[in-house]
Design goal:
Elements (H helix, E strand, L loop, with lengths): L16 H7 L5 H11 L6 E5 L5 H6 L5 E6 L2 H13 L5 E5 L14 E5 L7 H10 L7 E6 L18 H12 L4 E2 L2 E2 L9 H6 L3 E8 L4 E5 H9 L13 H15 L4 E5 L3 E7 L1
Parallel strand pairs: 1-2, 1-4, 2-3, 4-5
Antiparallel strand pairs: 5-11, 6-7, 8-11, 9-10
Helix pairs in contact: 1-8, 6-9
């Protein structure tokens, strides 16, 4: 459960939606095929993606289901996802601005419920119970996708310079202070943990873990690295207030010093899916 001084509020990702998809590395396609095989997905059934953001996981998994429902507490994230679904001509997704704590919200039952880099922002104990009630007694599953998509790992022999992530973090600290920001609050110890205890307390069995990807090299532009910074709750645009323009100028100068050509390379981290069954 999210504990301590932090309490979710609507500013957690304020201003970040427009940057999220551009600044984050995509989930590897193998994630969809691995979940298809592990869960016997055949294009039928319903998926509920909770904390969907701009639909990074939603769009990847949509072909595996008859219909998909995507919810997120941030209205701008939902709007971004809906626009991307239209652009990609994916018609089987319904998008709703909604907090996980307000489930089930007359949404019905689902074959699979997913949380992609989102469960730690929720009341984990309450949401785990709600998710279990929305699954069938047998054959359903809840999937947590654990990933770090806003930055890669240190790689070798990359075609372009790597983004100076340590320097970027230091610059963010210079502007926002040493304690991690989160909406109107802060997280001195970082975000809460995986929520495994909450899942077990809600009656789930597992997890069965699947790890895919890792090692893929992505090339990024200066704009995409800037977007990756603004895509994070700890450095969302609103946190900088009237210093946003100065921060971005310093950030871009740092990036140009690191790569005068404006191109960067990052090696993608592995992605792990934890499958919980009722």
């Amino acid at each position: 459960m999210v504990t301590g001084a932090f309490k979710w509020d609507e500013t957690l990702y304020a201003g970040a939606a427009a940057y999220y998809a551009a600044g984050r590395l995509p989930y590897p396609p193998e994630l969809a095929s691995a979940l298809r095989d592990a869960l016997d997905l055949d294009g039928s059934g319903r998926l509920l993606d909770v904390g969907c953001g701009p639909g990074s996981l939603t769009l990847l998994l949509a072909p595996l289901f008859r219909d998909v429902t995507a919810i997120d507490a941030d209205k701008a994230m939902v709007a971004e996802g809906a626009a991307k679904a239209i652009a990609a001509e994916v018609p089987n997704i319904s998008w709703f601005p909604m907090r996980a704590e307000d489930l089930p919200g007359k949404l019905g039952r689902f074959r699979v419920v997913t949380f992609a880099q989102s469960f730690h922002w929720m009341d984990q104990q309450a949401v785990a119970v709600l998710a279990r009630r929305m699954l069938p007694p047998s054959g359903g599953a809840c999937v947590h996708v654990h990933a770090t998509t806003h930055e890669g790992v240190v790689g070798w022999a990359l075609p372009c310079p790597q983004p100076p992530r340590d320097q970027i973090a230091s610059l963010v600290g210079d502007y926002l202070g040493p304690v991690r920001r989160a909406g109107r609050s802060s997280l001195p110890s970082g975000p809460p943990g995986s929520g495994d205890d909450a899942m077990r307390a809600a009656g789930f069995r597992g997890p069965e873990q699947i790890t895919v990807g890792g090692g893929e090299v992505h090339e990024c532009t200066e704009d995409e690295i800037v977007a990756s910074v603004y895509s994070q709750s700890s450095s969302a645009p609103h946190l900088f207030g009237d210093q946003l323009e100065a921060f971005e100028a310093d950030l871009r100068q740092m990036l140009r010093n690191a790569s005068p050509g404006g191109r960067f390379s990052e090696q993608q981290r592995p992605v792990t899916a934890s499958i919980w069954r009722p």
